[in-house]
Design a protein that fits this description.
Layout: H1 2-36, H2 41-66, E1 83-92, H3 101-115, E2 123-132, H4 137-150, E3 154-156, H5 161-174, E4 178-180, E5 195-197, H6 202-215, E6 220-225, H7 228-233, H8 235-238, H9 240-243, E7 247-252, H10 261-269, E8 275-278, H11 286-309, H12 329-338, E9 341-343, E10 346-348, E11 362-368, E12 371-379, E13 383-386, H13 396-399, E14 405-410, E15 418-419, E16 432-433, H14 435-447, E17 450-455, H15 473-479, E18 485-486, H16 494-497, E19 500-502, E20 507-509, E21 511-516, E22 520-521, H17 534-557, H18 581-592, H19 604-633, E23 636-637, H20 644-649, E24 654-656, H21 662-669, H22 673-684, H23 686-689, H24 694-703, E25 706-711, H25 712-721, E26 725-728, E27 735-737, E28 740-742, H26 747-760, H27 763-772, H28 791-794, H29 796-827, H30 831-842
Parallel strand pairs: 1-2, 1-3, 3-4, 4-5, 6-7, 6-8, 14-17, 14-18, 24-25
Antiparallel strand pairs: 9-10, 11-12, 12-13, 15-16, 19-28, 20-27, 21-25, 21-26, 22-23
Helix pairs in contact: 1-2, 3-11, 4-5, 11-12, 14-26, 17-18, 17-19, 17-29, 19-29, 21-22, 29-30
Domain Ionotropic glutamate receptor C-terminal: 405-774
Transmembrane segments: 12-33, 45-66, 73-91, 536-555, 612-634, 794-818
Membrane topology: Multi-pass membrane protein
Amino acid sequence: MDLNQTLRSYTHLFRSFSLSLSCLYLFFSSFFLSLSFPLSLDLSLSLLVSLYLCLYLFLCLSASFAISSHISLPLSLVLYFSTSISTWGIFESIESGPSGAEELAFKFALNTINRNRTLLPNTTLTYDIQRINIFDSFEASRKACDQLSLGVAAIFGPSHSSSANAVQSICNALGVPHIQTKWKHQVSDNRDSYYVSLYPDFQSLSRAILDLVHFFKWRTVTVVYDDSTGLIRLQELIKAPSRYNIRLKIRQLPAETKDAKPLLKEMKKAKEFHVIFDCSHEMAAWILKQTDAALMYDAVHVVAVAVQQSQQITVSSLQCNRHKPWRFGARFISLIKEAHWDGLTGRVLFNKTNGLRTDFDLDVISLKEDGLEKIGTWDPPSGLNMTENHKTKTTNITDSLANKSLRVSTILVEPYVMFKKSDKPLYGNDRFEGYCIDLLRELSGILGFRYEVRLVEDGKYGALEESTGQWNGMVRELIDHKADLAVAPLAITYVREKVIDFSKPFMTLGISILYRKPNGTNPGVFSFLNPLSPDIWMYILLAYLGVSCVLFVIARFSPYEWYNPHPCNPDSDVVENNFTLLNSFWFGVGALMQQGSELMPKALSTRIVGGIWWFFTLIIISSYTANLAAFLTVERMESPIDSADDLAKQTKILYGVVEDGATMTFFKKTKISTYDKMWEFMNSRRSSVMVKDIEAGIQRVLTSDYAFLMESTTIEFVTQRNCNLTQIGGLIDSKAYGVGTPMGSPYRDKITIAILQLQEEGKLHMMKEKWWRGNGCPEDEKNKEASALGVQNIGGIFIVLAAGLVLSVFVAVGEVLYKSKQNAELEKRSFCSAMVEELRGSLKCQRRLKQKPQPPVIAKAEEVINMHTFNDRRLPGKETMA
């Protein structure tokens, strides 16, 4: 038994070893035979099979000879020959990013075909993907040539017209099928014989749109396109006015910008409501992108069907610089055009002449509340086929409100809801008018419901009462389902949203301050000082004192300001200076008053001081005179408050809000210090500052010193009709009005969509203009009051004055130095001693006389001048000579 098991083990080992040798032999044999006979594939296969069978018989005989028992060798031979077909895809991208839907569909289709061997059991489809810039046709041509040199059976894409035409030209020249999933204008001479498109024919699409226009009975249609290809795709519709009673208007989207708002506004103004948009894929919706991916998936399967129907196709290297087409190209493109496939986009059949898709179905979809809904189909043979219940079925938006009667709660507030003035008695909804009544009427017209308007019982909007923890006003009625809608100036707030639902806002606004216009004040007794600010008056006084002192000092130091009081006696040694301290002040006053004085400066330095002072006074007096008339004649409007901060800083003017309103809730919940301070003030005087409604607040503003905090839209309405009232400051917060509904009401979304429709149509704005526009008040002449001139207005004149004074000082120093040099040369002494003598004479402030320099050779006596006069003095060294 052990010997038999041992022999059996060796036998199995020998079998395994022999099988391994046979496999190696088969591999090397096939390799060398293929090298020896590259064109005799059948001969090589026969030799391989014969050699393998001989080896098999030898192993069987040797095993049976060694072992007496019957041993079977279960060995099977599977001949499986796999063919590889290469395809190539070109996909466009403006920027580098993740793969697009078409590229993913391309990969998925190829991988599905290769994994599922039912379609191509003996063939593997390989692919290569290249991404190019959407506008670079040269790059597309270059990459197409590179790939064709490696050998491909078909090219998919690109979709952009310029790149697609370049690749299509190469494919036509080299006989390689070009598969497209996007629309491309097909020329009539069939030059693109190797072109196949899964996109529906533009003529069929145009006929489908025309059938829809007929079905909806449109008599005026506007076509909006973004490039010239849109006009080609809509040829049937463009020809319709000549055959049907249709008014057609064609508009083009602006090419330089993607902003279509000006065009849409122009269409709205022209009342063009039936619009057909033919836009590029970049502007299409996401569902169209999914359609492109489905077309790519079907395109790959059509090529796979053509491969399956072909006998044997081998790819070869093709060169763009040699016009040598692929020998299997004509046969392969013919198979593609003859192929048919039930794919994701329906039945795929092609026109064998131009390669366009012929058998397809178009779905007519409509936007409903729950999303897109299919309402019909269109196909080339039978045309448009709408669903049976489409004509009688209204949209989902109106299903739940049509022919229903709703209870509407509101409140009397101008101009939202008011009693209609009439000589005849009115009943029901006819009693009311206003903005909210018009809004309710428009909503009823869109949604098809009936309504009954009721005034809220307690006359309040709705707030949470702290004492009871219960809501009041219209909010209470919605909570108790006493009302289905609350159409009023009801602000959307966080606390209200927790207990009721709101539609989208139909009006946005904010809180502001209503106050009386200030009374004008007449000019006062001392209003002549108002043209210049107090700072300027102080600076003018300081400038006057400074200039007078500088003039006095420079006049004392400048030798040229000293003159001979006796011009008839040129040899007189007495000189005189008129610019005493008092005279200097008098000179400044005379120039400031533009009256002048008898004193005239003689030296250059003193003349500079005088000239600069005259220029300064010229500007000051001119500015003062120009501003004086306005301050003396205009009544100035002075308001005690200009903003909420001013209101919070004082306690003289009382201010308040409507009790239990949204404005009170804002101040109550605010965390801003200014508004919190205002709430503490109002809450501490609650009984005296809070009002029941808006009318009471307006009357209190008119009759007392009271500021009313309320919504800006109501302030705008009131100030248009009462010229004694005005708005103070800007908006304190931002809020919006919405239609209130009970929590979880099915009507909210319907009301919201209808409000958005009214907003897009501009009806909300028109209703506001209707009810807010009043007779108007004359514009406030706020700009009549001329503001006081400050430093920033005429401060430059002081800079000029200071610069002139500094210049005069330097000139005076130069004059002293120059005169000292002259005296030193005349008296034959040193420059320093002459300058010291000159300064010594100038510093004797008690006298206005100083010694006149004389040459040393002059020795005659001079008569003594009267030393008791203030204007003269005797020169030293002058004695009577014999």
